[in-house]
Design brief:
Elements lengths: L2 H34 L5 H37 L14 H6 L7 H14 L12 H10 L1
The chain binds zinc ion.
């Protein structure tokens, strides 16, 4: 990726950062306004907590995005942009254009995702959380 392309990506990232910051500011104001109008009955309270929860969910996604963008901007500034943080190889242009905040080359990303997927709960997934013995007893009883 040449310096001009990196500069273009930088501008894209800065714009996106700006948008996220504006979004977060707006949400923060919304949160405050929910607090201000303290609800009178339990129904209102419920609505307030639900909307707060969804706001929180939305902001946490945006905050993650913001961190990734800021890290990418730092890498651009530090001259390490476009290099895999794990193996140091150059990340493909196509990947960077699609995901300017990508820190790893595709190969390292896949290795990492595989590790994350296998690190979690390794027990086989079941629809019911009933141990087999108990389920069997129930079937016999029913
Ligand atoms: Zn790599």
């Amino acid at each position: 990726m040449n310096p001009i392309e990196i500069e273009q990506l930088k501008q894209r990232l800065q714009l996106q950062r700006q948008e996220i910051l504006q979004f977060l500011n707006r949400v923060e104001r919304e949160m405050y306004s929910i607090d201000d109008h303290s609800p009178q009955d339990s129904a209102d309270q419920c609505v307030a907590s639900v909307s707060k929860e969804s706001l929180f969910e939305r902001t946490s996604q945006q905050r993650t995005m913001l961190r990734l963008i800021q890290a990418a901007l730092r890498r651009i500034q530090g001259g390490s942009f476009g290099m895999c943080a794990t193996c140091g190889e150059v990340i493909k242009d196509r990947r960077l254009l699609a995901l300017p905040w990508a820190q790893f080359c595709l190969r390292c990303q896949e290795v990492q995702e595989f590790q994350e997927a296998t690190q979690g709960d390794v027990r086989p997934h079941s629809d019911t959380h009933v141990p087999p013995a108990t389920a069997e007893t129930w079937r016999r009883a029913g």
